[in-house]
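Q: Got a minute? One more chain.
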Amino acid sequence: MKDAASGKGGFIRQRRAGMIAIAMAMPVSLLLWLAIAYFAPPLQGMESLAGRLLFTLKCCCLAVLFCLVTGVEAVAHERLFSPAFDPLSGFETRRLLVNQRYLQNTLEQILVFMAGLFGLAAYSPDGSQMRGVLATTVVWMLARAAFWIGYHRSAAMRGLGAPGMALSMIVLLYVVGRIGYEVGGFVGAAVPMVAFLAIEAFLFRTTRPPTSADPT
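A: Always. Here it is, folded:
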């Protein structure tokens, strides 16, 4: 009973520390995004859709190299110089586990990031608005680095990378809203938003721990 209470207390402390990390990282990330999106020089040659998509592809290449490939390399080097060279041996260090978690999480997040980024470029008709694509790329990459470094400190400190995940989702929701608006006006834009929020509410409800002990 004491072990269960101690474990629950540890979880609550970790979650509180994670929430503090998120609260610290969010305003910094927002200010950085706004600074780039509104004060960076307008990008040249962005009048055509092809030019905007090409620039977005270049941003994705940078993100893949510095966020995904570095994770692959970290895991590969860890295996090269340890008994983990044989993945079936069961040998795992904390550093290896963190690097593997980072790599898996980045692989998941980069799909959301890229889909949203290309969509944002499609709806950014000039060089001034395309600064949003640049800002999103810079903030997302820095957030990935913060997530990785923080994770090596503690599980809670990976919350420093939460703004990048939130940014990808917000951009993608914006793009989906624009698509919906083209199809059905304000109603068309609202339907996917409401549907997504309903799914989020359902997930929060179903994953919330029970408030009372199981009588069995």
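A: The mean pLDDT is 92.
Q: Perfect, thanks.
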